[in-house]
Every structure is written in structure tokens, then in C-alpha cells.
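Troubleshooting log. The previous run stalled partway through. Resubmitting the same two chains, unchanged.
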Amino acid sequence: MTEQDQLPFSEETTDNGDKEVYHLRLFVTGASPNSSRAITNIKEICETHLHGNYELEIIDIYQQPLIAESEQIIALPLLIKKAPGMERRMIGDMSNTNKVLRGLGLNNE
Amino acid sequence: MLPKTPTGITGLDEITAGGLPKGRPTLICGEAGCGKTLMSLEFIIRGATEFNEPGVFMAFEEKTEELAMNVSSLGFDLLKLQAEGKVKLDHVHIDRSEIEETGEYDLEGLFIRLGYAIDSIGAKRVVLDTLENLFSGLSDTAILRAELRRLFNFLKEKGVTAIITGEKGDGSSLTRQGLEEYVSDCVILLDHRVINQISTRRLRVVKYRGSQHGTNEYPFLIDEEGISVLPVTSLKLEKQVSSERVPSGIPALDEMLGGKGFFKGSSVLVSGTAGTGKTSIAAYFANETCNAGKKCLYFAFEESPMQIVRNMKSIGVDLQKHMDKGVLKFYASRPTLYGLEMHLVSMYKLIHKFKPDAVVLDPITNLITVGSVSEVKSMLVRLIDFLQEIQITVMFTALSLNTIVSEQTDEGVSSLVDAWLLVRDIEHNGERNRGMYIMKSRGMKHSNQVREFIITDKGLDLVDVYLGPEGVLTGSAREAQKLKEKTGVALRDFAVSRKDKEVMRKRRMLEAKISNLQAEFESTEEELNKIYMEEELKLQIVEKNREDMTNMRKGTNDENKIRSKK
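Second attempt completed without errors. Output:
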């Protein structure tokens, strides 16, 4: 309940004064086309919407296969929003900007 | 020959002639709750414990703890196996509500996960339990289908023997998502049906490319030792046979069976109407087996062991001592306790555990209550088959319900058995007696005679029935006839002795007469002799006188004196 309460609150705060830092993790598989596209897309989105207010960690699953099990990874590329608010998972090459923004809780259109 | 991976599941390897195709994926499909997960899990566990082949179990439905809990009731310790590095459990969690699809993706994560799991323990076996759950978690079916195709290729490249489970779809399709089109090597369909309130699980190998396999529906069971599939019949009739004989326990019956008894490993049916002593015959057989130092397993479907022991004591058979010695084991259960298949499996298991030399089923008729005639027959076929394979002699008793003893028992097993003894009531003269005859006995000379079967305090015996001018006589009629004969003999004896005496008397009379005559003859002879002697004497004297006279004429005094003296 508390998390759900936080979600609208966090959205408001980002609108007002970017109080909370976005912790993002992007899991990719080497330099596959999907992965490359995902990296480019998410970087662009972050720069546009979360300028200076985010931490993006890019993890290559090929290098750390153990993470796949611990993070329940099936489909790739995968973006996990650890904070703020509830954890959200987004899969795909992040080409659908609207969906990414909705996932990040930035969809205020 | 296609290389195969044995599953270790009882019976399944027989049906598939060795197991699942090695290094290829197999699809197991069926409705919810028909045992897909358990079967695939057992495949992994048996592989790890019996064939030294580590396995990966990827669960899309249940959590690893739940899985471990589920199979712990079957005596498998999954978590321990996992700790030993023989099994790797991986729970895949997908929830559509948690995932936003933002563009093109693939299932590389799954591949990496699976590949890592396989490599980390050197797995030879892989199970993907309800892969179709991916379809509920992810919406882009086009991507999923392409990825599934890639997945099966990936599994083949890895060289693992894989099982993919899938839920049965509507209509004729085997799975909801048409997984069968990806898995073309081996498809096994599981089914769970309830007929007459008794549920039976069945298994069918729908296809098995490049291998022969049993095509029938085979019942299977899930019990405390896992899954057991029961091949209806072994695919071949190539059993070893023995010409060794085992006695029946009733010497007179052995006599009817060519003097030696049954063949070892043969099946014997004892049928008859109620109260004809079928159980007694069975108990005698069990007793004899135990007396010979062999083991006997007695399945009782009607009476409790204690009841049988008590009843048999009354005819002089002490089964208790064999039970104490451990050579006789009773297994009593109500037929309605569970379905036929369960009965069969429990029998299989007990037989495997106890390793008896003889098995008694008393009576098989009661099994009808839990199955149709054809089901009972098919079950008995399998049982006989199984017993013959391991050379166990089996005796069934069956109740004939109709009074007219037909040529066919109700279970229709008479054609299957090697020997068939029929005990029947012979009603005559206001009493019922038991008659026994041998309907058939394969491979041996046997008596064609009806014998009277008597049960006394001392035990069972067979006696020749009386065949007289009045027909077949049994019981008291036979005894009466015997008495009658005895009387006849006595009377004749008496008559003979009287005649003998008369002859003796006559002889004595005759002898007396002879001696009389002889005496008469002697006296006559004496008389004659006397006359004859006198005559002789006279003649002598006359002669003498004449001499004397002559002498006198010569003038001799002396001679005169003598003559005067005379």
C-alpha cells in the first residue's frame, strides 16, 4: 500500500523539483541489434526526461549469467527501474518511448 | 538404432522400448492434474539418482520449494540432490502485469539461464515444465514462436534429452499453443478419466519418430513410490518355461495331474459355485508351498487373514506357523478399496518385494465389482504375464455365479490359464456333494475322471466316485452302495461256507461207509482164508495120514502109535 501511495507522490515530485534519483538497470546481451538499439534509446530517453537525475547501469548478461536467474530474466533487453517507487520491468528495444515513459512513471501527457 | 535415454519410470521404458530419444526434446501433454509435472520431475530425479545423469528442471509454474515439497511425499529429496549438484531447479517467474513491452525483444535471457544451468552441473536431462506459460506472460506470439523454434534447436545443440510439458488444448489439438509442431520426435499424452467413480490415469505414446513403441493406452499410477506405467501385455510372447513340477498339496489331485502336480510358473484356476472349497484348495496349495520351504503370497479379497487362518485350522492346515516363519504372507484388501490398476500395481510391488514362489488370488471374482469384465480380464492377463515371466506359480479362485457350470468363467480367464480345476456341487438323493474334475491342464497327461472332493477334519481328499449301474454316486449314496456290496459279499461268504461244510460231512460219511465195507471185506476175506487154511490143513493131514498108512502097511509100530495119538 505504501508503495502505491508513493507512486503518484513521486511523479509529482519529479514534476516539481526532481527530488528522487532514478536507479535504472539495463540488461543486454553483448552487442546484439536489439541490445544496441535499447542502449541508444534508453540513453536518449534518460537525457531528455531525466537529465542529471538518474543512474543507468548497463549489464551484459553474457558476462554475468548468474544474474539471469537471480533477477528472473527471460526476455531481453530488459530495463528494471529499481527506484523510485515500485520496481518496474520493461522489455524490448525501448523504441516505444511512450511505453518506456509510462513504465518509468514519467507519463504525464 | 535410435539412442535412447532410460527414464527410470516403471513401465515407461518398456513401452518406449528403452526410453526417450536421447538428445532430443519430448513433449508430454495432458490436462491439468494428470501428472505431467510429476512424470517429468521423476525423469530428472531418476536420471540423477539411478543413471548418474544430472538434470535441470525449469519450472514455469511452481516455485522450487513447492516442487521439493510435492515430491518429498514420494521419498525424493530434491533440495539435497540440488545441493549435491545433481539436480538444478530453476523457477521462472513471469507476470504480464509487471512487464511492459517496449519494442523488439528476444528470449536470450532464458537461453543464457538454461545454458548456464546445464553447463554448471553438466546436465544431460532438461525439463521445461509448462513452457506455454511464456505465452501468458508475454504477448508477442510471433516473437515467442520464433524463439521457441530457436529454443528446441538450442536444446538439440546442447545434446540434452529434454521434456517439455504442455497443457492439453481444446478440441483435437494436443497443446494450447501447438507445441507439438516444434517437438517432432516423441509425444506422450497423459489422460485422467473417471469411470464408475473410479479414476484411472492413462498414458499413450502418440508418436515416437524412428522407434517402435507401444501404441495402446496404458494405465499408470501415482503412488508413494512415484509413477508406474503398466504395459497391458508385454510386446512379445517369449517367456521362459519350466518343466519343473510343483505339488498341489493334495496327493490325490497330483495323481490326477499326471502324478506330479502343476508346472512351475503356470497359472491355475480353481472355479466353482459357492461353498465348494475353493479357498481350501488354495490354502492347501499355499501350505504345501510353505512346507517345501518356499514362499507364498496370498491375496485375499474376501476374507481377512485371521479368518482364513482360523477356518483352515478346522481342516487341519496350520497357516499361522508359516506366517510366523515369514514364508507366508497375506495381503487382504477390499476390491473396492481402489481401482483395478491400483490393485495390480500393489500386487506387482508386493511380489517384487516379497519374491514369492507361489501366489494365490482368492477370489478374482470380487474384482468384477470394481471393473468391467474386459478390464478385469486385461488386468489378469497382465498379471499372469508378469508372473510367468518371473516363474511364479499362481492360483486363482473364481466363483461361478450360475448353477450350470458353463465352459467359460465369468472373468473369461479360463482361456488364459494353464490348468483349470472345476469344483461343482453334485446334488443327488437330497444332499449336496462336491465333485472335482480337471477341465484342462496344458502340457501334461491328466485324468478325465470326476472325483468326489471331500473335506474332513483331517483335510482334503479326493475319492473315486462310484460308477455303478445306477450312474455316478457320491456322498452317502456312495457309502450306501459300498455297504450294500459288503453285505452281498458277507452273504455269499456264508453260503459258500455252508456248502463247504456239507461237502465235508458227505466226505466223512463216505469215508465211514468205505471203512465199513473194508471191515466187511476183511472179515469175509478172513473167513475165506480160514476155510482155505482148513482145507490146506485137511489136505496136509490127509497127505500125512496117507503116508502114515503107507508106513503102517510097511509095519512100523512107532508109526502106529503116532497115528493113534492123532
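Takeaways: The mean pLDDT of chain B is 84. The two ends of chain B are 151 Å apart (CA to CA).
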